[in-house]
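FW: tagging you since you asked about this chain on Friday. Here's the raw sequence from the shared folder, copied in full. Didn't touch anything.
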Amino acid sequence: MTIGRKLHNSLLLAIVVFTTAVALWSVTTLSESERLAADAGSYDRLAVGMLNHTGYDSVTRPPVYPLFVASVYAVVGHKPAAVAVVQAVLCVLTLLLAYRIFLYVSRDQTIALLALAVCAVWPPFYKQIPILLTEGLACSLAALTIWSVICASEKSTARNCVAAGIMVTVLTLTKAVTIPYMLLAPFALLLGRPDQPRQRRRMILVMIAASALALAPWTYRNYRVTQRFLPVTTLSGFNFWYGNSPDAYTMADQADWLKQCGEKVVVNTVDSAAVDRDRAWMKKGMALVKENPVRTLGLFARKFSGLWLGTLGCNPSACATEIPHIGSFGIPKMAFLQVPLFLLAILGWFALDKPARVRSYPIIMLAAVWTGVYVALWGERRYMVPMTYYEILFAVTAVVQIARRRSHRQDDDKGLEPVRG
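HL: got it, structure written out here
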């Protein structure tokens, strides 16, 4: 379904203007101290260290986001607010690229524009702008990665495959949880047009090689400073242990729980002890999983709910205190929004025709990796913000398809001739 070019351009311009205004306004919603709270302070310190040539003293933080922050500081000075402004601009550009992906998948301007409009008013996209956290950049890189994989699957040239491989690695060096996507994404090439299967199989190897070569300098750096093989970062072991420890969910503050356990996370370290400690945490996590597999499955379900369903089903007394609940049953407020959105997204994906579902496979692959790793480890709802664009696309698809079928049914009813005896 198409709409007039003039109306399309007017609606697109209105959405872009609205998004730009809200994104820039969101920069002012935090003070300078709030902008560097928690993990944000670590990224700021690493960026300053890069500029001062004092080294990158961490094996727990991937390098791309600190490098992004440092590049902004190099131009305007140590001004965290400037990083937020750049992230606001990236938010707008990401929305435009997401619209291009929406059009590619759905081949329907109405669905794409409606999905874009919903994204433009979706609060979580703006909440990650003013603070120095990886989500401010990961949304853009995830969209670029998906688009590069789409381009490689549509036209499997060496240039497209190399570009896609590099983009997958850049995303991995921003969000280390996407490392399985480095191996999975190349197989999207087999899902494109069925012509030249032999060439496509060769291009899979090209894409994997490009990803590996792009990752090699960082992996070598990690080996040089730790004398351990470490592809991206540590802390996966700690997150696996923490995410599968039932006692961790009864404490409102992670630091208190760690103190109670006699453990400590050291972020600013580059020695082999950090890697060994993380591997020890991984072994402790595996022991917990083997100890009670049924409990582990329950925790997996709980983490999945936290990522996609607004923590529906979690015991309110054991949830973080900042999650608001409604009524004596403890239904989280966000569940009223996130559960229908998730269910509509599932329905919308199945409502797509087969070619559209095939075109969406690069998105589904990345969403599956993103979700699966965080469910196995541990994660917060904000970690899923880069995937929410596409959840909204599929949810809008379901709503539009239902509306169209209802409209067609009403038209058919009006067109019936009365039966004469």
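FW: Residues 111 and 400 are 7 Å apart (CA to CA).
HL: agreed, and The chain has 19 helices and two strands.
FW: great, closing this out.
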